[in-house]
Amino acid sequence: MMNADSDASPPRLFRGARVRMSVLGRERHPKYGDRQGVIVGRGSPSSWRVKFDERTTVQAIHRDYLELVAQPAAASLQVAQRRSSMGGASNP
Hints:
Blueprint: H1 4-7, E1 18-21, H2 23-28, E2 36-44, E3 47-52, E4 58-62, E5 66-68, H3 73-85
Antiparallel strand pairs: 1-2, 1-5, 2-3, 3-4
């Protein structure tokens, strides 16, 4: 029997979102630790390109290895405004 929690999908990731490695991501890639970064684009249908803080290169990371970081209200509002000004278009 499935409960309501198992039907819930994780929050959707999007370009400009602040993310960190999930528990699964830290298990699979311990060298990344608890780093945070910003999604800068799509790597493939199942991965995102992330620019981690204090790193110069962008890394493609599987979506299951990332989780959203809570942002201050002002930062979330700015991201939402940028997304709406782009007409909701995603970056392929």
